[in-house]
Amino acid sequence: MNILIGLIPALFWGILPIWMRKLTGGSCLQQLLGTSMGIVMTATALQVIFRFNISAHDFGLYFISGAFWSICQCGQYWGYGQLGVSLTMPLSTAFQIIGNSLIGGWLFGEWRGIQDTALGLGALMIIVVGVANGVGGLTVKNLRGYLLLLATTFGYWGYSGFPHYANSTSGINGFLPQALGMLSTSLILYLVGRHRLPGNDPAGLRNITSGLIFSVSSSVYLISLQLNDLVNAFVLTQLNVVVATLLGIVILKEADPKRTLTTSAGLGILIAGAVVMVQI
Q: 165-191: per-residue pLDDT in tens?
């Protein structure tokens, strides 16, 4: 059951980039602000209904986690438009898995002993090979985009890592402060990038629906962190790359359909690595 809960974020996070590229549109800053607004609306509703209790210490940790998310998510949204979903998702996945797995395994001590470390590193190698085989169309002219994705990936490490230090036994308690951190940082990035207040922004408003979709993944991910630990919870969410990459090729027509077979094989290898990882 814990594994099934951990797979829910993967499904919704996989659908999200297709939803944004196909339906809501807008720049990365508009998408980011709209998504954050939708997340805050959902988190507020859950807080009113369930009245979650959280200490000031945990509130700060989850707020910082949300702020880190905004930084990395802005880079990923930029990648959707500039590099395409089917290229951005595998690359982002590789960067994220390497960082979060090593942080969780070594810093948080989730890999216990030499055997766990060897299995963890072996699984990482399998995952990276799978992602590499699932990516096509890498070019030198897009080097700036690849570097931007890499530079903003540290935000995902903070997004997953800070809740680990919280004292709360239920990660969902931190959903509202995390959402407030997302919205605050997203608003700052919007003001810096667009040099004006949001006001009546149709694209931003449309992307509130993106936030509602994201809220399902984000809230369940917080629960999964408690049930599966950081490494397993995070790796399970990264199976969203399977959904997003294939939908990007088929629905958004970002590549020759003939590439689907090669991509599927690479993503199959990624899944195999994830299976090994969650056995640790």
A: 888 767 788 999 999 999 999 999 999
d(CA 203, CA 30): 6
Residue pair 236/275 in contact by the 8 Å Cβ criterion? no
Structural tokens at position 133: 């085989």
Instruction: Identify which of 16, 78, 32 has the alpha carbon closest to the alpha carbon of residue 198.
Output: 32
Give the Å distances, CA to CA, from 269 to 3, 70, 79. 19, 30, 24
Total count of residues recorded for the chain: 280
For residue 47, is it left (φ>0), alpha (ψ between -120 and 50) or beta? alpha
Cα distance between residue 142 and residue 36, in whole Å: 28
Task: Give the tens place of pLDDT for each residue, 4-40.
Answer: 898 999 999 999 999 999 899 899 999 999 999 999 9
Dist CA 167 CA 57 (whole Å): 8
Higher per-residue pLDDT: 106 or 256: 106
Dmax of the chain from CA atoms? 56
CA atoms within 13 A on the CB side of 8: 18
Q: What residues have CB less than 8 Å from 155, skipping those under 6 apart? A: 68, 69, 70, 71, 72, 73, 75
On the 0-12 / 13-18 / 19+ scale of CB atoms within 10 A, 274 is buried
Distance CA 87, CA 244 (A): 10
For 108-137, write each residue's pLDDT tens digit.
Answer: 777 888 888 888 888 888 877 877 676 665
